[in-house]
Amino acid sequence: ALRESERRYQIMAESSPVGIFRCDRNSRCRYVNRRWREITGLTTTEAATDGWLLAVHPDELDNVKRHWQLAVAEGQVFRIECRFRRPRGVTTWVFVQAEPVYDVHKQLSGYIGSVTDISDRKRTEEEIRRIAYYDALTKLPNRAFFLEQLGRNIASAKRTGRRSALLFC
């Protein structure tokens, strides 16, 4: 019965549309499914040796590491949106979430998690932002963009106690 249960789990994990991984506290993966390998561009060996953080885009690596270390230190759930950079330079937006796993002594032994490709959603969000804040013909920022930036500038000036100026021609 245990072997049959394990076989069903393996089939389910391998056919999942999201990347599934199990890793230790140091982000080294002990299991990754086929979809996880497709999303990250890493091999099973690379994931086991260097960990899943190897897939994170260099511009976001420090932030992701900081969040990961905080989650591990506190034994908390890990959730983050970030970019992965595949070996050929292709960038993919992903949502990573992982639940802590504890051993029989109630010590954190690692995480089980998933990686979901959210690139399409990010492209849609950017398109909506472009439509909302830029003129379709000239591609210049519009009034909504100006008002949002002005609001941010005023809020920043209030928060820091600095002065701000607006020149209207």
Describe this structure in words.
The protein is of the alpha+beta class. It has helices spanning 2-14, 34-40, 44-50, 61-74, 119-133, 143-160; strands at residues 19-24, 29-32, 78-85, 91-102, 108-117. The protein has a five-stranded antiparallel beta sheet, with helices on both faces. Strand 4 (91-102) and strand 5 form a beta hairpin. The longest helix has 18 residues, at 143-160. It is elongated, with a radius of gyration of 22 Å. It starts with a helix and ends in a 9-residue tail after the last helix.
Keywords:
alpha+beta, 6 helices, 24% strand, five-stranded antiparallel beta sheet, single chain
Give the overall shape.
elongated
How much strand content do the residues show?
15-25%
Q: What's the mean pLDDT score?
A: 93
Computed structural class: alpha+beta
Please tell me how large the radius of gyration is. Answer: 22 Å
- The percentage helix is 40-55%
Strand order of the largest sheet: 2-1-5-4-3
Count of DSSP-assigned helices: 6
Question: Low-confidence segments, ≥5 residues, pLDDT <50?
Answer: none
Order of helices and strands: HEEHHHEEEHH
Please summarize the sheet with the most strands: 5 strands, antiparallel
DSSP strand count: 5
How far apart, in Å, are the first and last alpha carbons? 78 Å
